[in-house]
Fold:
Amino acid sequence: MKTFEELNIWKLAKGLCLDIYALNNPKYLRDFGFKDQIQRASVSVMNNIAEGFERGSNKEFIKFLFYSKSSCGEVRSLLSLSVELTYVSQDEFRILNEKSIDLSKQIANFIKYLAKN
Structure:
């Protein structure tokens, strides 16, 4: 891979981020602190993948992939709260939660791959 944009995990992270930004429940939109936090966490997932890739070493990349995976967990935690606060429907939660869990697993697998090489 020559660029981070070619990485499937980055593409998935970008998709999750766009999904988070697309949430439009009026109650959610008025909670500026919550909305800002979940959006920043989702951006952090994709940006840590990019930043780690650009560091140029597997050791640094792995460190940033762990940051990305951690931010993915933060998104899931906030999604769990968002359903309790009725900011998202059960269906929206299920879809976004599944995407974030899948992404977290793929990041973990990529970390394992890089650690072996």
